[in-house]
Design brief:
Chain lengths: 145, 290
């Protein structure tokens, strides 16, 4: 029995102009990605990746998302990510952070990444309240959605 | 041996506006590039070939302040892209002094004859393509293999292909042509981005290899190892046949005791065994090629 191989792609969404929220949820992001796959790779590309494709996690505040797709079709997804310039109605680009085979590894990487981000930003804040709020919003990692 | 760190982006177009350059360079730092080359293009075909022996090529732009600003984060090189139509450029290049001030020399042929010359005899390091001119120029198999043997590299710019779907089609066509004609050897990716929004991280660029017909390894090498090779080749072209070289790291001190020889001896000489060995290997390779 061979298990089904998945790939988890951790991406960061970088908007053209800095904004607080992207107004995206996992379903809308998945829809946008599938539309883009169809635009660049056609019906074949869409068909190869559509099964098993899912956005597992998206954080509106830190703009990090995890995309799951099948191992066989990962090229079709990872190769179009740099070409996207419009996400929903926001001008934004994707930055691939990590590609992992299990979601645990992706999680580990993101936690590390966020800690680095916190180290950079914490120094710029003044009050302890703001720091706590930021810490909470950045490190929240809620998987069941 | 000159130290450079991955990743590389060998085409950042020069912009007169410093704030644009700063934004571009800080975005490059953020996405993880360590070595970049600022590009300035020069159209040889527009100049008249009247005066002989005179300087045709422009001086490099002054970017010392940018270098100082990004001292620890980025290594900034300078590159010139020569657009040309016929082989007359070879003579102008051989007499030029200004060309030696650039780290990299790229050729951008406009005609088929120029493309063949570029692959077989051009005294530069890099062959690039103008996405605006479309995909009329396609390299043929013989010329491509000669170029690979000479150690020339071919450049694929990704920023125009992000901006416009026609450019994208043309760049993919050019890239797939490399794939059919010679298994995509000696290819590097570079940005050519005029705005920081068009820049992508090195791993994203490596992923683009899939649509450009390169394998995963080749894609990774196109932003990493091949760029390093290209840089070394360019350095060896600038220095001539070199076994080792000494680079000053501090102010020049003139010593009184030995004024007749080595007047420009430097404070710190860096010439450890590695450097010597590596440059020697390089020189031997060059000799074999010649």
């Amino acid at each position: 029995m061979v298990r089904i191989k998945n790939r988890y792609i951790a991406v960061q969404i970088v908007p053209y102009t800095p904004t607080q929220s992207l107004r995206l949820n996992d379903h809308s992001l998945a829809k946008i990605l599938l539309q883009n796959v169809e635009k660049y790779h056609g019906a074949y590309g869409l068909a190869v990746i559509e099964q098993g494709f899912r956005v597992k996690y998206i954080n509106d505040r830190t703009k990090i998302a995890i995309i799951r797709c099948l191992h066989r079709g990962q090229h079709f997804v990872s190769s179009i990510l740099p070409l996207i310039t419009l996400i929903g109605d926001v001008r934004a680009k994707f930055r691939t952070l990590y590609i992992g085979a299990t979601i645990i590894q992706c999680n580990k990487f993101i936690v590390k990444h966020q800690k680095q981000f916190l180290d950079r930003v914490m120094g710029q804040l003044n009050s302890a309240k703001e720091r706590q709020d930021l810490f909470k919003s950045v490190m929240e990692f809620d998987m069941d959605r | 041996m000159e130290q450079t760190k991955p990743f590389y982006d060998f085409c950042v177009p020069y912009n007169k506006d410093d704030s644009v350059m700063r934004a571009l360079l800080s975005e490059l730092v953020e996405t993880g590039y360590k070595t970049v080359a600022i590009d300035q293009s020069f159209d040889h075909s527009k100049k008249e070939a009247g005066k002989r022996g005179s300087e045709m090529f422009p001086e490099p732009h002054k970017i010392e302040h940018l270098r100082r600003e990004f001292q620890d984060k980025l290594r900034i090189l300078q590159r010139i892209t020569i657009l040309y139509v016929d082989v007359n450029v070879a003579h102008a290049m051989s007499v030029s002094q200004n060309l030696r001030k650039f780290n990299l020399i790229a050729g951008q042929p406009k005609t088929d004859a120029a493309l063949t010359h570029c692959c077989t005899a051009f005294n530069g390091d890099l062959i690039t393509f103008d996405p605006a001119a479309g995909s009329r120029l396609l390299v043929n198999r013989k010329a491509y293999q000669v170029a690979v043997r000479r150690g020339m590299f071919f450049e694929i710019k990704y920023a125009p292909s992000i901006a416009d779907s026609n450019y994208r089609k043309d760049m993919i066509k050019v890239a797939q042509n490399y794939c059919t004609k010679g298994k995509s050897k000696n290819i590097i990716f570079s940005s050519g981005a005029a705005h920081e929004f068009q820049l992508r991280g090195p791993y994203d660029v490596a992923n683009l290899a899939f649509i450009f017909g390169l394998s995963e390894d080749q894609g990774k090498n196109a932003v990493d190892r091949h760029c390093r090779q290209l840089f070394l080749k360019a350095e060896s072209r600038r220095l001539g046949k070199t076994v080792m070289f000494v680079k000053g790291n501090g102010p020049i001190v003139f010593s009184d005791s030995s004024e007749d020889e080595q007047s420009t001896e430097d404070d710190e000489m860096k010439a450890d065994a590695f450097e010597v060995k590596d440059e020697t290997e390089h020189a031997i390779k060059r000799l074999k090629m010649a």
